Every structure is written in C-alpha cells, then in structure tokens.
Model the fold of this input.
Amino acid sequence: MPSSVAATGSQDSHIRPGGPALRRGLLVPALLLLAWMAASHNGLLHSSLLVPPERVLILPFGDEAGQQIWAALAASVARMLVGFAIGAIAGIGFGLALGMSLTAQRAFAPSFNALRQITLFAWIPLLTAWFGNGDSAKIVYIALSAFFPLAFNTYEGIRNIPLAYVEVARVLRFVPRQRVTRLLLPGALPSICIGVQVALITAWIGTVGAEYAMGAGRGLGAFLLAGREQFRMDVVLLGVFILALVGYVINVGFRRILKPFLLWQGEAK
Amino acid sequence: MSLSHGVIDDQGALAIRAVSKSYQVDGRALQVLKGIALDIAPGEFVSVVGASGCGKSTLLRLIVGLDTAYDGAILLDGRRIEGPGPDRGIVFQDHRLFPWLTVADNISLGLEAANVPIPEQQRRVAENIALVGLDGFENAYPHQLSGGMAQRAAIARALVGEPEILLLDEPLGALDSLTRAYLQEELLRIWRQGGVTMIMVTHDVEEAVYLSDRVVVMEPRPGRISAVLPVDLPRPRDRAAAEFIRLKERILRALSR
Done:
C-alpha cells in the first residue's frame, strides 16, 4: 500500500466526526465563548470592538447589513464550486499527464514544482491585471488554488503505485485507456482523495481571499470588507464565523462522502 | 530430451541460448546470469532451484519479457522474445491482484487488453475461476481472500489468456504448508488439464521433485546452471519413496556444492 493510504487511515481514526472526540473538541470553543460573553457584559471590552456573541448570532435575522450574509454565502459557495471544478479537472489531468509520460515529467515537473512554491496571494496582482477585478479573475484564482494540491497529489499518487502492479500491467499488455482507468487512477485514488480534500479547503480560503482582496461583487469576502469599512464588528465576526463553519462542513462532509469509494482498501488495513 | 523446432503443433517450446545478464551497480558490472542454456519441450514441467541470488527469478523476468537487456537469445517456438506477450503468463510470489478490482475483473484484465468481446471474456473468466476452484468468489475483493485463494486467482489471471508457457515465480512460497501441499496438487491438475508448459522457480527441493519432469539446479555468483536432473518417477509421486528421497538428496548435494 502506498504511504498516502496509511495517512488517510490514521487521520480518520484520530479526527472522526461525532462521538467523544467531537465533544472534547467543543470544550475549548465553549469556554472561549463563555469568556467572550462574560467579558463583553462586564464592560471589560469596548463594546464596538468586541460585540457580545448573541448579537452576532441573531444578526443574520436582524438588520439589513446582517441579512446580506445569506446572499454573500450563496455567492461565495457558487463561485467556489465553479472555480474548484475547473481547477480540479485541470489539476487531475495535469497530474495524470505528469505521472504517465516521462517526457511530460521532464518538461513540466521542475516548472510545476517552482510555481507550487509561490504563495497564492502573490498571484492576485497579476490576475487582476490580466482579468480585471470581476468574477473571471476570482474564478481563475480559485481554480489555481485548487489546481496545485490536486495536480501534486495526483502525480504523487501515481508515482507511489507499487512497481509490482505496474509490472502486471506490462505483462498483461494494457492498452493506454486501460492503463489510466484500471491502474493509474484507481491506484492514485487514495492520494487524489486527499488532494480533493486539501483543494476544497484551499479553494474555499482562496474564494474568500479573492473576494476580500479584489473587492467588487458579492460574497463573504466582500461582506467582511464592508463590515470592516463600516466599523461593524458584529458583521465582521459573523462573516468569520460563517467562513469557519463552511470550512468545517467541507472537511467533515467530504470524509463522509469519501468512505464508500475507498472500500477496497479493506477494514484490516 | 527430444526437441523439434518448426513443427507446427509444437506450441510452447522454449530455447534459452547462451543467456548472460549483468546489472550496473555503482558503475561496476555485476553479472547475475552467465551462459544459461536450456531447452524446454512443449507441455513440460520444469522447476528451477537455487540459493537466493542465483538469478533464477531474473531468468523468469527475461522469459516473460519484463527485461529485454541481455546477451544471448531466448526463443519461443523459434521466435525471439521481444517483451511481454500473450503466449506467456506469469504468477508472482505476491499475488499482485489489483486491490481495487474484484476477482473476476482482475482475471479479465488480460482479455480486456486483447480486446476480446465481453461475452467471450465472461465465459473465459468463469471457466478459469472454475478451473482454480474459486466459484462463488467472482465478486470478492482481494483483501477478502486468504493467501491461497488470492494465489489461485493470480493463477487464473495468468491462464485466462491461454498462454503456451506459464511462469511461476515461487508461487507457493508465502503460503502455509497445508495450503501449499493442496495447491501443489491443484497445479498438477491444471497442468495435466491444460497441457501448458510450466516453468517454476522454487526454494523447496521437495516441491520441485514432486511436481517436475526436470529440475534445473542453479548456482550463484554468477548465476549459472550447475545440473539438470530428470525426475523419472510416475505420478502421483510418493514423497516417502526411497527413489524420491534419493533424488531429493542428490539435488540438495548439488545445491550445497
């Protein structure tokens, strides 16, 4: 088994959604929330800088500024899904090409590894110069943030397919299509799944980051920006809370969805 | 022994002519095979025994076509081997079934590659599953099989393409002794049923004497053939028979020289 498989296995057993681990994990946030409530009600903190938590929680149902969270959330999620889909398809395709062809590997792997080191935020000035600060620049940015982890994990997954299986494919004289569908993709699947998980999170961070940095248009990033400019800390905190919640849902939901696809790994492993 | 090249119904005659093979290790040539010469008749069961490092597995890799960089010639029915082909199947010590495919899908891989029509694929897969006694496990995944069952599936995968030669690289080496004895009988049955030429690499001298028409003894550094001993005992063979034991001891002596 490639090492990436072991990685998913151990990760799964440590951070399983639900159960005692979740309850223990909730302890610290609960204590922080209590401290926050106590501090804001005792007047220890200036109320416009740190509003009481209950005001943040009712905000989505409160004034006009707060109600915009719904539209912002919908716009961000939609934007993220589009960007992620483009980046994921391109990333898996690129990783597959690198893994399949020695020529592609020699030509592109060094550039890819160099580009991968660039902090994603550094792309923003270039992208806004090329695509403006509308939706296309944001989607390209989100696609890029999903592309790198998926390209990398697909490529690594293929490289870690045991030589024993590659030899079987040679002895049985696989045709190219079979090599992809019977050997490379399923063999790299555990690693690709980790790539998808990482890419979903980076795409989500990328979405909010792009919206915040590029400004214009709807979205959670723009929502945060507006809150900051209007000095509405309750709006900002609500935005941060929703942002974190979506990240959490992506993480947990993805692991649930994934399980049936990796059944062949067996329970014992 | 008799060997007649060029005769049309002589399918599966293998001629190994002066085969040598070296690897480059740290810039120096390390010779793993030296002057291997061996003729194997169609339908013959030949075992290769030898200490580890004598190149016996390397020899199988050359015959199956996974490695084509060697001196000399390996001819199958008079034609030079230029890489893997449908005329040869191989069973490795580790079953090497793809863990993401069911038993049936693993076995049909070779047929899929050869573009065999689906109904024919299904028929031949079912036939070979029955041949190795895995009926009822068509849709099982490899991790659900025992070691012996996985090895049966691997044998079916190698046989489904109807090769002339079946190469076996210590196929029973990782199994417990009961399963091993049982699968030895199964191998004999499959060999008799299909008439396929079998070349088996093994550590187990008794296994070699029990199964084979001839036992090839190899020596290491550099890997070469030191003896070829015919086993002229009628089957089924009695492991406790005096002649069986005498032959076994002769091979063991040849090995420890």
The two ends of chain A are 9 Å apart (CA to CA). The longest helix of chain A spans residues 176-214. The interface with chain B takes residues 164-165, 167-168, 170-175, 178, 182-183, 186-187, 189, 263-266, 268-269 of chain A (CB under 8 Å).
